[in-house]
C-alpha cells in the first residue's frame, strides 16, 4: 500500500468540504450564542435570529475552498 497515492477519490473532496462546512456552522453558532448571552438584557428577547443564521451560513460556505485546499495538499488527520 502506497501512502501518498496520486489517485485522489472525488468522494473524499466532497466529504472534506462537507465536514468543513459543518464545523464552521457549529463554531459560528456557538460564537453567536455566546455573544448573545453576554450582551443579553433580560428584559428583552434573546438577540439571536434570522440575520445571525444567514451570516453563519454565509461564513460556512468558506468550508468549500478550505476542503478543496485540504484535499489538494493531502492534509488529512
What does this structure look like?
The chain crosses the membrane at residues 12-33, 53-71. Keywords: Membrane, Transmembrane, Transmembrane helix. With 77 residues, this protein is an all-alpha fold. It has one domain (10-73). Helix content is 65%, strand content 0%. The chain contains three helices and no strands. The protein has helices at 10-38, 50-60, 63-72. Helix 1 runs antiparallel to helix 2 (50-60) and helix 1 crosses helix 3 (63-72). The longest helix is centred in the first third of the chain and has 29 residues, at 10-38. The radius of gyration is 18 Å and the shape is rod-shaped.
Listing every helix as H and every strand as E from the N terminus to the C terminus, the arrangement reads HHH
Secondary structure category: mainly alpha
What overall form do the CA principal axes indicate?
rod-shaped
Alpha plus pi helix count: 3
Number of strands: 0
Task: State mean pLDDT (0 to 100 scale).
Answer: 86
- Terminal CA distance: 18 Å
Percent of sequence in beta strands = under 5%
Radius of gyration over alpha carbons?
Answer: 18 Å
Keywords: Membrane, Transmembrane, Transmembrane helix
Transmembrane segments: 12-33, 53-71
Amino acid at each position: 500500500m502506497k501512502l501518498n497515492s496520486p489517485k485522489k477519490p472525488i468522494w473524499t473532496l466532497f466529504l472534506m468540504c462537507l465536514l468543513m462546512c459543518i464545523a464552521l456552522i457549529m463554531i459560528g453558532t456557538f460564537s453567536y450564542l455566546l455573544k448573545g448571552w453576554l450582551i443579553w438584557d433580560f428584559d428583552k428577547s434573546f438577540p439571536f435570529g434570522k440575520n445571525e443564521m444567514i451570516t453563519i451560513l454565509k461564513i460556512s460556505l468558506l468550508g468549500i475552498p478550505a476542503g478543496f485546499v485540504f484535499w489538494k495538499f493531502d492534509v488529512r488527520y
